[in-house]
Amino acid sequence: MDFPKIKSEAVADWERFRNNQKTHILVGTATCGRAAGAIDVLDTLMQKIEQRGIDAEIAQVGCMGHCYAEPLVIISKPGSPAIIYGYVTTGMASVLVDNCLLKDDPCLEFALGALEENELIPTIYDMPRFEYENRLILRNCGDIDPQNINHYIVNGGYAALESIFKMTQEDVIDQIKKSGLRGRGGGGFSTGQKWEITKNAGGKSTYVICNADEGDPGAFMDRAVLESDPHSVIEGMIIAAYAVGAAQGYVYVRAEYPLAVETVQHAIDQAKDMGFLGQSIMGSKFNFEIEVFRGSGAFVCGEETALIASIEGKRGMPHNRPPYPATEGLFGMPTVVNNVKTFATVPLIIENGADWFSAIGTESSKGTAVFALAGKVVNTGLVEVPMGTTLRNVINDVGGGVPHHKKFKAVQIGGPSGGCLPESALDLPVDFDSLKEAGAIFGSGGMVVLDEDNCMVEAARYFLDFTQKESCGKCTMCRLGTKHMLDMLQEIVNGNGKMEYLELLTDLAEDIEEGSLCALGKTAPNPVLTTLRYFHDEYEAHIIEKRCPALQCKNLIAYYILPDKCERSCDACVGVCTAEAIFSGKKRIKVVDQDKCVKCDTCVAACPPEYNAIIRMSPASSVPETEKRPEKAKK
Amino acid sequence: MAQKKVKLTIDGQKVEAKPGDMILWAALDSDIFIPNLCAIKEKEHPQTGCRLCFVEIEGRDKPVTACSEPVAEGMVVTTDSERIDRIRHTAFELLMSNHNVDCANCSKNKSCALQDISAKLKFKLKSKRLPSIVRMLPIDDSHPLFTYDPNKCVLCGKCVWACEKMGAGELQFAFRGIDTVISTLGGVPLVDSECKGCLDCVSVCPVGALVPHKT
Ligand SMILES: Cc1cc2nc3c(=O)[nH]c(=O)nc-3n(C[C@H](O)[C@H](O)[C@H](O)COP(=O)(O)O)c2cc1C
Ligand code: FES
Fold it and tell me: CB-based contacts of A327: which residues, under 8 Å, 6+ apart?
């Protein structure tokens, strides 16, 4: 293989993509963009450009991280700064073509910011989030065309791979060990150590598996990396394979990620065509193949032993560890299982050195953390910050805080079996160990922000409902223990809870943690334990006062129309109430018939904001006595 | 060449076992009781599903399942401590809360592993703190030779192993969470499955879930 030649060809290709002589348009078409309508925007742009006979290159890139503002379009015209536009609709796309491309109006009203310094508008790097963000794992995401291997190569891709062939297997493992890299799949085990154990296990054959099951609801970091920069993961896997002496690798992607599956497969084919995969890789004596395996989509299949069972064609059920996959994994052979982000980090460490990497982050957790910010936060989307950044910085500065002037209540970290941490924990540095100490887990990197309108008992119930349904059913603790806990939580949110439940919940939680077969069960009680620890008063309010402080639990609230706020001649609430529970009382003031109300919340939304006359009250019994529906209207 | 035996201590008693043997078998062979429902000696990988066989090992900070922990020279094992009793009692209560306790009418009465554990460890068959969550699912009595009662099943997986071992592989775990059951392939009634009627599953069932028809 002639790598210098490949590189210079890649440069030429990149120049065509990014030169300044021509107008370039980039559209973010990862799944997050598509869900917001990016494909329609792309189609409109292409049609319009053709109609108008404009000479412009249009290309698709992956996730840019600003998922809250999807669809995103970047336009760079010769002579003007590149500008990123957000919330682009097909209508806006037409306007952009006519006004920005055809004429010279940069349409700043649609712009999020510029990508380079200029005199017109601030750059997006002036946003507070960029003070904290450090995009290593997401280094290329949204900047390159994931379908084009040249784009990866130009940005330093496969240089790390080239350099390892001058190193021994032990050298590679040493570098990774020295870097302090810990697995990004949740457990945080030392990656170098895992590779070393695998290599020394001395099996007849050895495997490398990339875990891209990502079953956590709301998490999409791994999907974004695979869809936006697949070669970074592939390169990491090849380096791992070299280090442990594996000839076969698998990327285990959930079948619900069709675009990721397609993108990775395409990238594998390209890498193979160019000699980065397959026989005698880059001219060396090393051979390695990668196959994409589509998972069935069960959450538990992300657990490494269940994942391996699933590839072997068995039911995705975890088994006892030891034996760990590192010594007895796929088909009984030593197997490295690492997360997508772990692999994507590896080439950077090889390229820049272990010391460079270990200088980022905290004492025990090196490098960066990627989070999928979701829930009650302004800037939902992907965030990458150095380990050790505080939760407050992530949520308020990068995430832009809680919208609509609502009060922050909790942040749920680590996926469905993570913990809910309160305001007082916001100064915690995000790393593997401090999160664990606070009762949460690093987990997959899901981060859901909850505000004053979220009931913490209901939140715990919601997450436990998920883990109970996803329990593989093999072990008693997880299958039945979480069911009993869930039943109690359900009773509490229904208003039938008893104080002795709280002790039983804690006792069961501790036993499930200690006695479960796999980490699904061991961590499932976390949402309950943390809410009991930090939001005990909400449990008590539900049980003792039958009151839901967040006014969320249906059984504990009632709707009330404030007579002095009701506009009387407006019938909006009456009109939308499908249960026919609202009637016009004396002086046409609207009244809720509590017996008929199904608590659908539609009337609250319908009541014009200038009146704001409908409120939720808890306990339900606290609603003032209202007049009864007149007999004749009752019928 | 005979392998050298491993010497260990279980509950203060000196015990010898073959290298690679699990603690559970070493203990049972020496008449030391450790509750268990899912362990099968010949099975290559222990099921570790019932969570009853916890023991403590000196020097380890966490209890381990005896069915999956190999013996080691000089190992000191405790099968009964406050900590062990708490976990296995909870596991037992959980199993019983989802078990249709109807001993008087059960053909496994007096030969049931649950009754045995209950008697030996003085655990009540009906839990005081956990309500019964038995769902009273339909019983499959379609087969001419035996019956499957999911309301008595503890999902130990022994029947799945037995069926696979004899080459039929008809019995499988199906569904997830509380809905997990033992099912035939495709969920057909037993009589319509490829069951060859060997009754191996019935003979390994520790409880009254798989029982021969009363004659
Ligand atoms: C219920 C459950 C689900 C999991 N899901 C994932 C997943 O989606 N992706 C992942 O990388 N690891 C997941 N893990 C962790 C894996 O078992 C394993 O530790 C990880 O893939 C190792 O990679 P790492 O060392 O790079 O973190 C899960 C674990 C459990 C218990
Ligand atoms: S006998 Fe060990 S877990 Fe069931």
Answer: A197, A198, A201, A334
CATH superfamily of the A154-357 domain: NADH-ubiquinone oxidoreductase 51kDa subunit (3.40.50.11540)
Q: Is the CB of A304 under 6 A from ligand 1?
A: yes
- pTM summary value: 0.94
A570-590 pLDDT per residue, tens: 999 999 999 999 999 999 999
Q: What is the pLDDT of residues A130-175, one digit of tens each?
A: 889 999 999 999 999 999 999 999 999 999 999 999 999 999 999 9
Mean pLDDT of B53-67: 97
**Per-residue pLDDT for A632 more than 90?**
no
Q: What is the CATH class of A557-628?
A: alpha beta
Is there a contact between A320 and B86 if contact means CB atoms under 8 Å apart?
Answer: no
ipTM: 0.97
Q: For the domain bounded by A368-454, which CATH number is listed?
A: 3.10.20.600
For the domain with range B135-215, which CATH number is right: 3.30.70.20, 2.40.50.140, 3.30.450.40, 3.60.15.10?
Answer: 3.30.70.20
B49 Cα to the center of ligand 2, angstroms: 6
For A347, the enclosing helix (H) or strand (E) is: helix A340-352
- Cite the residue boundaries of each domain of chain A with CATH code 3.40.50.11540: 154-357
Distance CA A559, CA A620 (A): 8
A188 CA to middle of ligand 1, Å? 10
Query: Which residues, in sequence order, are bridge partners of residue B90?
Result: none
Gap between the terminal Cα atoms of chain A? 86
Nearest to B173 among A298, A473, A484 (CB): A473
CA A408 from centre of chain: 20
Bond from prior residue into A230 cis (ω within 30 degrees of 0): no
- Measured from the CB, is residue A396 less than 6 Å from ligand 1? no
Per-residue pLDDT tens for A337-393?
999 999 999 999 999 999 999 999 999 999 999 999 999 999 999 999 999 999 999
